[in-house]
Amino acid sequence: MSFAERLTACAARIGARLGAAVTGDDPVHHAMRHAVSGGKRLRGFLVMEGARLNGLDDADAVTAAAAIEALHAYSLVHDDLPAMDDDDLRRGQPTVHVKWDDATAILAGDALQTLAFELLSRADCHPDPAVRVALVAGLARAAGAQGMVLGQARDIAAEAARAPLDLAAITDLQAGKTGALIEWSGGAGATLAGADPAPLTAYARALGLAFQIADDLLDVEGDAAATGKAVGKDAAAGKATFVSLLGVDGARARAGALVAQACDALAPYGSRAEILRDCARFVIDRKA
Amino acid sequence: MSFAERLTACAARIGARLGAAVTGDDPVHHAMRHAVSGGKRLRGFLVMEGARLNGLDDADAVTAAAAIEALHAYSLVHDDLPAMDDDDLRRGQPTVHVKWDDATAILAGDALQTLAFELLSRADCHPDPAVRVALVAGLARAAGAQGMVLGQARDIAAEAARAPLDLAAITDLQAGKTGALIEWSGGAGATLAGADPAPLTAYARALGLAFQIADDLLDVEGDAAATGKAVGKDAAAGKATFVSLLGVDGARARAGALVAQACDALAPYGSRAEILRDCARFVIDRKA
């Protein structure tokens, strides 16, 4: 199976799991389903592929994969709000606050975060409560005020202050804003299997930074039709990015070096990790 | 020790635990600390008193008590946002979005929810991972789109539609909006102790509804200086409440019956539960 086939297969399973998890017919339920539909489901794929590499079936990993996608979706719904990044378009669709309203978007995001922890705490996530609680603890550390939320808060503050950050500050910010969830996703499959998560965590750490640099490149070079979201926003906002600090060629070279580093971290898995190596190459070559 | 002394002692311990849990010097951290300061900490008290009745020391219950207070604080910060209830005053202090801004309030609330699950997943919450994960699962069910968030969404929808609800719909709505967290708090202490949570859960279910009826009465009869928040908002919004549906006397009688029901549920604990009985009476007699 190629990386593209595997990514598609994982996305379909995760979508079905999320569909079963979000029940109800209130507007907030419809908004939650809208928020978790579409997308590459890269984080969930990392969970499932890490689990497969350590001997688990997809059914053993899909609940944890759905959890991280629910958490990621919550962060997007809140980031898109007018008070935050103010985006109307996400994955080619109107954002939740545009299709419903701000209150529904706040509540749907809130409930998606709760859902992530609910899914991880369920017996069908893993039979051993100690494994489930370790996943909860790790995700909470990654998502909270020392991780993703802190990165997002600093990103907004830097933009509001119109005080562009330097490379060290941006690297630190992105390690929280996008890196922490990707890193958790990398290690979660091994944790589910009772294996050492260190190699896959190291892979995912490099992958996450490469992913963000590629995102900055897409904001400069991409087009809205392909990415399904607005482009050119960073430059218009006078925001420092990896591209504004390193230049297009420098950013591309840095992303390439990180992909090589990510692939090297997979050495313990030998040729069996080829799909993850392809994933790393895809992350910096993607057009969306 | 009287109920009032016990409530004060629990609040102090919970405040210290939360203070230790929210570190950092970014605006989002200051906003989180602001949001968890003050308040009666009734939910955390229920956790600690339920634990004490089942033989645990306060130190064994304070982390779970801090978790529910973090979750409750998140819900208040988001409810107070302009897109939701639009409140400027909370516990006699400016709300988070007034003191900082909407983005910081959204993020601080988000991180407080995460913190609740992080605290429950920590080894210092309980040595047994199975107990910790049961608390996570229960809190997630209580807080999510089938519990608190659903109640809040329906409350806002009813107000926006200017279509007052009937008594059954309001009772159902409040069971989610405020009841679910109070019910979880009632049972959590027994769960920590490995005891049957049923009597304390039944107590807390009746208490939660009495609490909400008392809140509606305060909105009619209270004053802003004593309650530390705006009053008269429900009537101004043409909102159906227990008071608009039952009248002041009817609502007061219903709250009294619920307090009697709550006290009856404590029978297995005999006279040792006198503090919780006083708590139930306090809930409907309070002026704030």
Automatic annotation (TrEMBL), chains A, B:
Organism ancestry? Bacteria, Pseudomonadati, Pseudomonadota, Alphaproteobacteria, Rhodobacterales
Tell me where the signal peptide lies. none
InterPro entries, per this entry?
Isoprenoid_synthase_dom_sf (IPR008949), Polyprenyl_synt (IPR000092), Polyprenyl_synt_CS (IPR033749), Prenyl_diphosphate_synthase (IPR053378)
Q: One GO MF term, please?
A: metal ion binding
Its required cofactor(s), as named, are: Mg(2+)
Q: Which Gene3D superfamilies match?
A: Farnesyl Diphosphate Synthase
Function per UniProt: Catalyzes the condensation of farnesyl diphosphate (FPP) and isopentenyl diphosphate (IPP) to yield geranylgeranyl diphosphate (GGPP) needed for biosynthesis of carotenoids and diterpenes.
Q: Which PANTHER family match?
A: FARNESYL DIPHOSPHATE SYNTHASE
This chain belongs to the protein called: Geranylgeranyl diphosphate synthase
Pfam families, sorted: polyprenyl_synt
A single Gene Ontology biological process assigned to it is: carotenoid biosynthetic process
Q: What is its EC number?
A: 2.5.1.29
Listed GO CC annotations: cytoplasm
In which domain of life is the source organism classified? Answer: Bacteria
**UniProt KW Cell inner membrane keyword:** no
**Which keywords does UniProt give here?**
Carotenoid biosynthesis, Chlorophyll biosynthesis, Isoprene biosynthesis, Magnesium, Metal-binding, Photosynthesis, Transferase
Q: Which family does it belong to?
A: Belongs to the FPP/GGPP synthase family.
Entry keyword Phosphoprotein: no
Q: In which pathway does it act?
A: Isoprenoid biosynthesis; geranylgeranyl diphosphate biosynthesis; geranylgeranyl diphosphate from farnesyl diphosphate and isopentenyl diphosphate: step 1/1
**Catalytic activity as recorded in UniProt:** isopentenyl diphosphate + (2E,6E)-farnesyl diphosphate = (2E,6E,10E)-geranylgeranyl diphosphate + diphosphate
